[in-house]
Structure formats: C-alpha cells, structure tokens
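anyone seen this seq b4? input:
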Amino acid sequence: MKRPALILVDVQNDFCPGGALAVPDGDRVVAPLNRAAEAFAAAGLPVLATRDWHPPATGHFQAHGGLWPEHCIQGSPGADFHPDLQLPAGSLLLYKGITKHLDGYSAFDGVTDAGVRLADLLDGQGVGHLFIGGLATDYCVRSTVFDARRRGLKVTVLLDAVAGVNLQPDDSDKALADMRQAGARLLATDAALAELAKSRRPIAKT
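predicted toks r here
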C-alpha cells in the first residue's frame, strides 16, 4: 500500500515578512506546518522540506534581466528556514534553483545533498500521497502540485499552510482553483491530519 508523505515548500526567511521576496502573510504557514510535521514524524511517515538555493548570479534575478529581486542566495541568512519552523529529526532536505538558468519552482526540481531527485526519493519510500504546504501558493506550491499530479500521486493541499505572492490580487485564488481542477484536495491542516489519523488507525479484531 502506498503511504503518505508531507512536503514543506520553501519556508525560508526571504519569502517571509521582511525578506527580499516576501509573501505578505508568509509567517502564518509556520504553525500549521509545525503541527503537520510533528504528526507525520510521530506516525513514522516521511517529512521533506525544499529550499531555494540560488547561486549569486542567477538568470531570473532582476539584476540579470529576470523577474525577481535577488533572494535565497546559497549560504545566506535569507536562504535559511524560518526560525520558528520545527523540522523533525530525519527530515529530508531538497535544494532547487541551484544552477544559473533554473528557476526551480517545483519541489520536483529539487535534489538532496547527494543529488537524489524528489521523484526518486518518493518512489524509494513507497509514497503515493503528498500533503503539501508552504510558499508560495501561486508559484512553487502550484508547480509542485501539478508535477505531483502528472506523476499520478494523490495530493492534499493544506489550505491554511499556504500563502501567495499575489502579484495580481486574485493569483492565489486562481492557483487554488487550478490545483483543485488538477485533482488535488484542499483541506485545512487539522482536518487533513484527523483524516490521515483515521485512515491509519488499526482495524480492531473481532
């Protein structure tokens, strides 16, 4: 039976209020993601976290003709995870956007320190259902959901654990609608965790 995994997308200082490319209410995703990570770890289920990890001269930065200001430079404080994010021991880290011309929106663009890609990690751990939260709804979360669905994975988006850049005011709403149309379920974190716990509860012998 395929098992679930949790993936936290880019909960980094530069994407939170005060950062170089801040999601206006990005801080609000931290508490529900901490609850989710604790629950998954307690159940012995995989917890993964992605981080943008850009080289200093990256093609999509504004200084080099791209869209975004410089952010999440390799080894910089802005690339660090939010200080209140509590990743359980044994969480798997993936790095994306690590080359000059790769945006690396999707978590599926990420690799581990050893160069293992997310899709191979999930296959190796028998994962068939991704629970996804993080930043940003309208970019990296959306791209991750689409890639997961293209690979035939079941997807649950944690509604209170995503927040958007919203270059246009309705970008996040459109992204959520797109993800739902792609086959993702959208649930509040506590509802998703309750459903997960119920699905994994041993069946009593009669």
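The mean pLDDT is 94. The radius of gyration is 16 Å. kinda curious what u guys think
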